[in-house]
Write the structure tokens for this entry.
Amino acid sequence: MAEARDIENYEKAYIDRKKDFALMRKNRRKVMSMYLGGIYLECLLKTVIIKKNKVCKSIAVYEKRKRVIYWYDDVNYKKLQTLKKPQKNDYKRLNKGFNPEHNLILALKQIDEFYENITEEGIKRLEMLNRPINNQSFTNLRYTYDEQVPDEVYRQWEENFLYFMSFFYKMRRNLVF
């Protein structure tokens, strides 16, 4: 069986990134606000997926030369352990989600209560947070400096961030952990 790892503590990371984001936003650091805001959202959504599905283990497998990290609850992880030689379809069949890496849209799609209720406009706004400049991931911002981000782009990013957080907190009430 592929090596299993304990799931990362995205909840603690989300709490710390929220603090970092607030500090950068307060100081009008555009690039770091956008970068840390993306990480904050990523960790927040991953926390919801993990809690909702009671995920405790992750296993990386390769599918068509691409690494996929599947997430498992305790019950399905134990089922995997009983298989002498788990096949790719076993990893896929028994998972309770997958690590969406830095893709906010893929993360949202794993939370039915959110994805089924977000508007098309909400998806577009989240996509802008996911790929804020030149259709590049928010993670690529770490090589950018503030002068490269036009004030209007930052204003739109901030507006989209606040829109999505408002949606998140409204929808959070519907979650059952």
Q: What stands out?
A: The longest strand covers residues 55-63. Strands lie at 4-6, 55-63, 66-73. The chain has a mean pLDDT of 96.
